[in-house]
Amino acid sequence: xxxxxxxxxxxxxxxxxxxxxxxxxxxxxxxxxxxxxxxxxxxxxxxxxxxxxxxxxxxxxxxxxxxxxxxxxxxxxxxxxxxxxxxxxxxxxxxxxxxxxxxxxxxxxxxxxxxxxxxxxxxxxxxxxxxxxxxxxxxxxxxxxxxxxxxxxxxxxxxxxxxxxxxxxxxxxxxxxxxxxxxxxxxxxxxxxxxxxxxxxxxxxxxxxxxxxxxxxxxxxxxxxxxxxxxxxxxxxxxxxxxxxxxxxxxxxxxxxxxxxxxxxxxxxxxxxxxxxxxxxxxxxxxxxxxxxxxxxxxxxxxxxxxxxxxxxxxxxxxxxxxxxxxxxxxxxxxxxxxxxxxxxxxxxxxxxxxxxxxxxxxxxxxxxxxxxxxxxxxxxxxxxxxxxxxxxxxxx
Length: 397
Hints:
This protein has helices at residues 17-29, 48-55, 71-78, 89-96, 103-110, 123-127, 129-140, 167-179, 213-224, 252-262, 305-308, 329-339, 381-396; strands at residues 6-11, 33-38, 81-87, 115-119, 144-145, 149-152, 159-163, 188-193, 198-199, 205-206, 228-233, 245-248, 268-271, 278-280, 299-301, 318-325, 344-349, 361-368, 373-380.
């Protein structure tokens, strides 16, 4: 996403400017060419050499340096995206009326690139009608806004809105902006992820080895492409994806209820979870002491969540299943595609190295109901997620 991209990072005069160093570094590590532009106020908080060290590129801070008269035009012309972080109340006010009295403001007026700003200021300043009006004016102009977050501000420990979003969140929003308008823009994508747990007693559970990694990468990638994403997740240590509505569940029955609740408003269902197929026929109300020796369990089948959605699928829904198999994986996946009346199925062979549960890589075959089969060789699950979404977009036309 970022490799080879030209990014202008505007930094204005707020205490949150220290986070901008990490943001500049992260963008550079991901392959972007980062041109940092410092306002006069920003130089009071952090110096030019710091940004030059992390980006390995010159920093711009003045319209008046000899030999740089047209640099604000040059920088504007080559930008793929302009990110301003932090964006202070003063910057927002001046930008909203088109001021051009420093390098950053002049560059923004000369740029036709998308703009993403990350406001950061005192909570009362942020809530002031002047600031809210100025932000709305910038949104109407097509600018994108991330944050601010709620947290401790510079003047105290109380939790209040006004804190600059973290660099990782700004980067995620930047990826969504760069993706532009694609086939998933404005659609609702419902993704399931992770295992489910079925209780034996108040302490012990029956579960499986699913980590949720694949489902979380799919949710992230769909949101990046402009979709509204609902992620229904069983127990997982994965971090909640930026921008995604996360619904946490424990049991297969809870996952079934969540899917049915969100299905009517969804355009795409991606069933990447690995819900438990069986649960104990009875659940003990107290822990079985080890001192009592071994015990036996009787199991009963849980609901087949995907099959159970059949009566509730609306005509415009695209339904995607996953099949983790061992041996004859494609044949078994094709049978599952037909049995569950899916539009597409993503097939894993768990016997292959680097494939399956609790790893960061995957290799899949994507089969659609028309018979189109796409092989995706072993790669990072982020790249596999993009390949799956490419296939969904192609199928939907």
